[in-house]
Amino acid sequence: MDILSCIKSFTAVAEEGSFTKAAIKLKKSKVLISRHVSQLESYLMTRLFNRTTRTLSLTSLGQYYYENINPLISEITDINSLIREQKNGLSGSIRILAPNSFSEIICINPICSFNQKYPNINIELKLSNQIQSLSSEGFDIAIRSGDLIRSDLSLIAKKIFSYDIILCASTEYIKNHEKITCPTELSKHQLLTDPILKNNQVWEFCKAGKVSTFFIERSLCMDSAQAIKKALLLNHGVAMIPKIFVEEELNEGILTPLLQEYNLKKRNLYILYQNRKYVPYKIRLFIEEMTSYLNDHYA
């Protein structure tokens, strides 16, 4: 019996909640996954899963075993990867989870640069605004924009970039609507908000150390910075948006910044990865290259 393969099959079933999904994840047959789990249960002389025709769940001992064995499996995998990297050079793959709009506009450039520089490392990039578990979904890295959330606390978070937020509208929109001289006057305007940037309920403005809070009662809300930018260019309203997304339009005078005497809170970009004793060199290298590229080209 290959005990390590049995344990890997067990942890995959525990994370996926299904023998079929575990087989797909590990690219093995369902029969082999089931055999591995049965062999492991025989070896441990205990039942690890409660099985019915419709449900599959860990027993209390199965849960205890999973919580304690999973970090060890990750460590073994990392050590093996470290040895292979030192022997054979950089290779393998990096699975990345990143937010839609920000990655399409900003992150794709450094990712392509890294891929070109290290062609033997396969990059798998999944774009999604949904918060997903790195371990259960098999991702090596997650890119987060904005504030971290509670589920991120179990991971290592490295701030790699900070960027400005700007309040702006199209020059054409400004010509045809009432002038905006203070935050309260925004209530007279069509506002464009983005829940991903967490600005769909409250906008905060700081001037001379004093914070002014503007509560949004109505807006056109879209979870895409690209869609917000498109609406701005259609002369459809006022938006808070990352400045780097609209730099070209600002320089050309198509968009105009508003309330520039107020400061808006900067946002941070983070890379998150598993809290491991042995972080694979390819992961550390990717983080370094990503940080360097963003700060060289966009800071």
UniProtKB/TrEMBL annotation:
Keywords: DNA-binding, Transcription, Transcription regulation. One of its GO terms (molecular function) is DNA binding. This is LysR family transcriptional regulator. Gene3D superfamilies: 3.40.190.290, Winged helix-like DNA-binding domain superfamily/Winged helix DNA-binding domain (1.10.10.10). It holds the Pfam family HTH_1. Residues 1-59 form the HTH lysR-type domain. PROSITE patterns: HTH_LYSR. It comes from Paraphotobacterium marinum. Belongs to the LysR transcriptional regulatory family. InterPro entries: LysR-type_TF_proteobact-type (IPR058163), LysR_HTH_N (IPR000847), LysR_subst-bd (IPR005119), WH-like_DNA-bd_sf (IPR036388), WH_DNA-bd_sf (IPR036390).
